[in-house]
Amino acid sequence: MVKNIMQGLNRKKVKVFLLFLICSFFAWFLSNLSESYESRVNLNLNYRNLPDTLLLGNNAVETMEAKLRTSGFQFLYYKFWNKRVNLDLAEVEYRNGRFLLSEDQLKKQLDRQLSQNISLLDLDRNQLTVDLYQVARKEIPVVAQLNIEYEQNYILDGPPVINPKNVTIKGPNSEIDTIQRILTAEIKLVNVSTDFTQEVQLVFPKNLVNSIFSHSRVAVTGKVAKFSEEVFEVPVRVINHPEGYQVKTFPNSVKLLCKATVERLKLLSPNNFEVVADYKQLGNANGDELILEVFRQPENVYDLKLMVNKVNFVLEQE
């Protein structure tokens, strides 16, 4: 029994000793952290205020080493949490084919961002070369890629409205000079009978490594209308016939199938269309048929189809 009591007391002494040891260690640790130290830390660089005529290249320096004097507490912060600092590129200078920030400029910018109890002693470089390049800019139109299945007797009423309809591209001339348009991702809809609006990504060409666009998405709106069909009897007019002769066609009028909205069809008549046969198409041949084509048609008509595309003719002297 005495032995058990002694063992219990010894364990209690060990626990008390360990507690005092841990407290002493923390007191020593905190005392040392409050002292001033000099050490080097890595700073992550964030470039700001880029001039409109320049773009940041892919090889831009991302970190910079600095020698600081501050308390141990501050150094713990820099060691465990990467410190990000801003570099104002409005102060960049172009010398000997390179864009540079001098050591003096770097120190002034960093000093403004460090705490008052932190002293900047030195940097790992006497200047910073910034990977910048001159850029051109131009506006290019956006073209929607539509893959739409409409319900029966419905159709897109006019071209889709794209917002914004143009985007600005900035990049080296060698990359952007051949870009004439930018496509949207495919818009796929089925059983459409009402107006629609879709927000969609732009599809950027893969070779534009150093170029940027003002927008990455656009809104595409389509107006959907119900359509009908009507057949118009339109006279055939012959052009480019020989001087001193007249051409008679058989038949002298043809049927033209027109597809448009019901409201639009009510406003149309045969006078809104013109079907011609070009005698010059025969050349030196001795054929007896002329090919027809629609020479004039009204706006806002979705589809036109000649019921016959050839007519017979006779040439008569006047």
TrEMBL record:
Gene3D superfamilies recorded: 2.170.120.30, YbbR-like domain (2.170.120.40)
Pfam families: YbbR
InterPro entries in UniProt: c-di-AMP_regulator, YbbR
PANTHER family, sorted: CDAA REGULATORY PROTEIN CDAR (PTHR37804:SF1)
Protein name: YbbR-like domain-containing protein
Organism: Flagellimonas spongiicola
